[in-house]
Amino acid sequence: MDTLHEVLKFNEEFVNNKEYVPYETTGLPDKKIVILSCMDTRLVELLPRAMNLKNGDVKIVKNAGAVVSHPFGSIMRSILVAVYELQAEEVWVIGHHDCGMGKVNPDELLHKMEDSVTKEVVASMKHVGIDLHSWLQGFTTVQDGVRGSVSMIQNHPLLPKDLPVHGLVIDPATGKLDQVTE
């Protein structure tokens, strides 16, 4: 049985047994926080547990490296919606040690893409104004990545100037949090 069918079979039992009841909550974050975090698999359960968060406490937005790479991309849109529609009053950017985005080499990644798409398609991105090297670039240190995302959020023209934006780094092995920005 493939993974999708295993999940669907489990889900049917989960729903039939009403195992969802302990997770019932509203769509608004109880602690009025939106967290931008990395999509790293080690953080799926560790991050909320290390922060004593339960279902319904916060909104969590995830992407590679917890990086806000464009002021009008989908990450910023999600943060704007969380603040203006979902009553979030703070933004926390949480990167993590040993993050893959700190190791991304745009040239190597583009080379891997050429196994799936043609060199012409990759080259055509320049003609529509996309600098793939810049777009795929990671960060030098996780702290720098967090600071960059915090700065992009703090300076966004559509967010309140007094919105608290905090930057943290979590250890994906222990869950220890270190504050990077205030």
UniProtKB/TrEMBL annotation:
Its cofactor is Zn(2+). It catalyses: hydrogencarbonate + H(+) = CO2 + H2O. It holds the Pfam family Pro_CA. Its EC number is 4.2.1.1. GO terms for molecular function: carbonate dehydratase activity; zinc ion binding. Zn(2+) binds at C38, D40, H96, C99. InterPro entries: Carbonic_anhydrase (IPR001765), Carbonic_anhydrase_sf (IPR036874). The keyword Transmembrane does not apply. Gene3D superfamilies: Carbonic anhydrase. The keyword Metal-binding applies. Binds 1 zinc ion per subunit. It is an enzyme of class 4 (lyase). Keywords: Metal-binding, Zinc. PANTHER family: CARBON DISULFIDE HYDROLASE, CARBONIC ANHYDRASE. Belongs to the beta-class carbonic anhydrase family. This is carbonic anhydrase. It comes from Guptibacillus hwajinpoensis.
